[in-house]
Amino acid sequence: MRRCWQDFTDLVLPTGCGGCGTPRTALCARCRVRLTGGTPQRVRPRPEPFGLPVVHAAAPYEGPVRELVLAHKERGALGLARPLGEALAGAVGGGEGVGGAPRTIHLVPVPSSRAATRARGHDPTRRIARAAAGSLRRAGRVAQVVPVLRQRRGVVDQVGLSTRERRANLDGALYVVTGGDALFSESGRVVIVDDVMTTGASLTEAARALSGVGGVKDLTAVVVAAPPDSFEMNRN
Fold first, then answer.
1. Assuming Cys at both sites, which of 40, 75, 186, 230 could form a disulfide with 91, CB separation 3.0 to 4.6 Å?
2. Which of 42-46, 97-101, 107-111 is least confident?
3. How many other C-beta atoms are found inside a 10 Å radius of the C-beta of residue 90?
4. What is the structure's pLDDT at 173?
5. Do 18 and 27 touch, CB atoms closer than 8 A?
């Protein structure tokens, strides 16, 4: 109930824009453009971990976009889930490619740890994934959230870890729940989703866990935001 009330008050009684602090709005027009107004791009961390699927991001993880992600994730600004979901849906479209009949889009969120979910009071990636699925359906696509990934063992907070430490922290940590393969259609497109990509370790581990599941043949990944230097358009 506390989280439902927080979600409601974020929408009707916003204290300030989550991106820049502009009063009396949860998301100002300028920050919305920064979040959803760009063209999604393919991103690659450096170094790129082996097994990382093709990843598209909606926006660079900097400035107001970074603040919006953190406001939703860590500060309980749950009203931001919808615009973040719209940005994520745009990244799904950015990786769609050209040609072929529309397929069911299966959005698989990277799970938060139980401890993190308890501390935050919600699972931010799953919440954004649900909002993205709604945005895709409003655009006429067939989309569903398939939360089949679970943590096999405990992991530590990734903040402050090096690339090598992140990989070791997550290696073998995820698995697909029993019967999860039945939720994927043979003709569907499976998309791993997360809010932010840094080193790519979480997405790589999620891809490893999903790789042996029947029906998972076309595996990609999308995130709301990624480091600016990971965007291919910024490469020389």
1. 40
2. 97-101
3. 25
4. 75
5. yes
**Residues 221, 87, 230, 142, Cα dihedral to 10°:** 20
- Residue labelled with tokens 């945005």: 135
Residue with the two structure tokens 């600016």: 228
Sole residue written with tokens 């690659």 = 44
C-alpha dihedral, 159 to 108 to 124 to 224, nearest 10°: 70
Q: 3-class secondary structure for 195-224? A: EECCCCHHHHHHHHHHCCCCCCCCEEEEEE
pLDDT at 157: 55
pTM, two decimals, is 0.83
User: Rounded distance, CA 60 to CA 226, Å?
Assistant: 5
The phi and psi torsions of 36 (rounded to 5 degrees) equal -120, -5
Rounded to 5°, the CA angle 156-160-161 comes to 65
Give yes or no for a contact between 73 and 225, defined as CB atoms under 8 angstroms apart. no
User: Is residue 107 predicted with pLDDT exceeding 90?
Assistant: yes
Rounded Cα distance between 170 and 178, Å, is 20
Name the amino acid, one letter, at 97.
G
188-202: burial string, b at 16+ Cβ within 10 Å, e else: bbbbbbbbbbbbbbb
